User: What shape does this take?
Amino acid sequence: MNVWPKGMKRTKSRVAIYKVLEAASQPLSPKEIHAKINQGDFWLSTVYRVLGQFEQEKMILRIAGMDVNHTLFELNRHEHKHFAVCIGCHQRFELDDCPIHEDVHVQAEGFEITEHRVEVFGYCAECLEKMRLSKVKHDA
Assistant: This one.
C-alpha cells in the first residue's frame, strides 16, 4: 500500500476495502465490495463512507454508469485507460488507442490535459447475438 495518504489511519474497514479494490480486475460497485469483505463486520454504509474518503484522497476513481445504480469504483493506478461498456451485461472492454491528447493539442493550442475518461456504450457481441435470437423467435 504505497499510495496510502499521510494522515489517514489504516482502520480495519479501510484496509479491507482497499485490498478488495487492489485485487479487483474490473471496477466494482459498493455492493460488490461489501459482499467481498463482509463477514458481518462492516455495514454497506461503511463501504460508502470509506469510498467517499478514498475518492477525496484521489486513491480511487468513480466510474459513472448509465444510471445512478451502476456507479463503480476502482483503485487509481494512474493508468491511462478507456472502455467500451456493454449496455446489456455491463461488461467492460478496454480500448487500446486514445486520440484525445492529439485532438486537444491540435484544437486548443497550449492546453494541458490533467485528466480525462472515455467510455463508449453499446452492446457486446454476445448480447447482440442474444438480441438477434430473441427477435428471430418473436418474428417466427
Remarks:
- The longest strand covers residues 82-86.
- The first helix runs from residue 12 to 23.
- The chain has a mean pLDDT of 84.
- The chain has two domains: 1-77, 80-140.
